[in-house]
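EI: anyone free to look at a 245-residue chain?
SC: sure, send it
EI:
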Amino acid sequence: MEGSDALSSKSFDPDDCYDYGLLIDLFEMNRHVPIPEVYKTLFESFGPQHWWPGRTRLEVVIGAILTQNTAWTNIEKVIRRLKKEKGLNLHVLHQENAQTIAEWIKPAGYFNVKAKRIKAFVDTVFRGYGGRLEKLFTLETSLLRQVLLHIHGIGPETADSILLYAAKRPVFVVDAYTRRFLSRHGWIHSDASYDEIARLFESKMGKDVQTYNEYHALIVQLGKSFCKTKPLCENCPLHPWLNPV
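SC: here you go
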């Protein structure tokens, strides 16, 4: 989804004695946030979002890499071009050079950078998993996430989008819209890390792929419709939870 992988990722182990202060912060942050109620309200307001609109797992992966800082309408143009060039194929992407791929994905913006990221992902699949995406996706979730995060240009949001939407793993995707609405409601502290925010949802919503899928898509719709850079709070479905200024 649209957003940025600039959100920081902070590793946390509750058994680590050096993280007790963080554990207290997480407890305080989690205790007051109505995560299930927000989900119900958004679903009642917007309905099912039918996301991710990719026909194959590779199409979802490519979309997740391309969508950073880009409107989805531009990604749709790229997907059409890739289909025309037979480029939604691991072997084709592996054989083509980054310059050719960059030409195919121009509407996505930052096309030279994103072409290198696509090549890095594809090279990883061929180097370690015989060019088979399904073999990569047999890895246990935490290991698969680490593999993805070690690929050039793939950060937490892109990795988790691939995990949730392509690999069907119960991992919550945190994007800029998520941070924005939580911050505006005073539900997270200003320096909350990516992983802290993800745990906030996972601790309250259980481990369910479809729920995480729907919730993330609903948050994106919230960000596009109401919680914009210049917010439209008065008619927002979450307005009852907004603290008066």
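EI: Residues 17-45+174-240 form one domain.
SC: 👍
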